Amino acid sequence: MSVEQRNVQIRPVREEDRDAVMELASQLTEGVAEWRDPGAVVEAARQWLAGFFGPAPEQRGAVFVAAAGGEVVGEVVGEVVVNTHRHFTGPVEAYVGELVVAPRAVRTGLGRRLLSAAEDWARRQGVRHLTLETAAGNTTARRFYAAVGYREEAVRFTRVLD
Prior knowledge:
Order of helices and strands: EHHEEEHEH
Number of helices: 4
Largest sheet: 5 strands, mixed
């Protein structure tokens, strides 16, 4: 079943969203390099996301969800670690750690809306740049980010050592 955009609310995450947010993390393996363990990618994302829940969140930043009829259909994490997440040239930057939309909600505009929420949050923090990363093999995400105005800034190379 598809999700109609007009029935979806973008809002800050709530404690009751935890299970749905953690379930969406399983979608984060698209394009992962063949030498990386996809299960480890999902587990790392879930551990990081868990830091945003609870009475005293361990993570700075914000999580926004796209909720339709009380059901979470997407998430975006925007994180600014003030005074420690600096570009090597000096300025503090915001960073989107995860952006994922449930398969039934892909290509409905929710990714754009979630990214817009992260951008608005970053502006309120007073930063000028919002950065993100995606797997080199995730061509869908790379096309999406380019289409919404993001430009490649760096390329990372990895060599598997014997």
